[in-house]
Amino acid sequence: MKATILYIEDNEQNFYLVSFILTANKHEVLWAKDGREGLETALDARPDLILLDIQLPIMDGYTVAKALKEHAELRETPIVALTSYALPGDREKAMTAGCHGYIEKPINPATFIAQIEHFLASRPTLEARP
């Protein structure tokens, strides 16, 4: 099933690797390079899934996740932190901010698409979305 996935990531190399894997699996990938652009793109595009780096310019990922949850039209959209922050407590901090999942970088290309499909399967159906 094709989905629209927004990846909020300031590192071009990280974006291209993730985008390559997702587009090879028939998903459409949108890119925002900072937190503010990510929030604006999410509101405009209403993606099926949001992948969110934590260390971003302008607005960090925690702030972006909280801001996304303030908008009714995005409240049920799964947000997955995709980050190199892997210290004790980082996962919990991301989940508290509003993320539904957490994937550490560097990603494992062999398992990444299965992780993404899991989060896509957990989203509400289009009919149930506001």
Describe this structure in words.
It is a single chain. The chain has a single domain, classed as 3-Layer(aba) Sandwich (Rossmann fold), CATH 3.40.50. It contains five helices and five strands, in the order E-H-E-H-E-H-E-H-E-H. Strands 2-1-3-4-5 form a five-stranded parallel sheet, with helices on both faces. The protein has helices spanning 12-24, 35-45, 61-69, 90-97, 109-121, and strands at 4-8, 28-32, 49-52, 79-83, 101-104. By secondary structure, the chain is of the alpha/beta class. The longest helix is centred in the first third of the chain and has 13 residues, at 12-24. It starts with a strand and ends in a 9-residue tail after the last helix.
Outline of the structure:
The chain has 130 residues and is an alpha/beta fold.
Topology, element by element:
Blueprint: E1 4-8, H1 12-24, E2 28-32, H2 35-45, E3 49-52, H3 61-69, E4 79-83, H4 90-97, E5 101-104, H5 109-121
Parallel strand pairs: 1-2, 1-3, 3-4, 4-5
Helix pairs in contact: 2-3
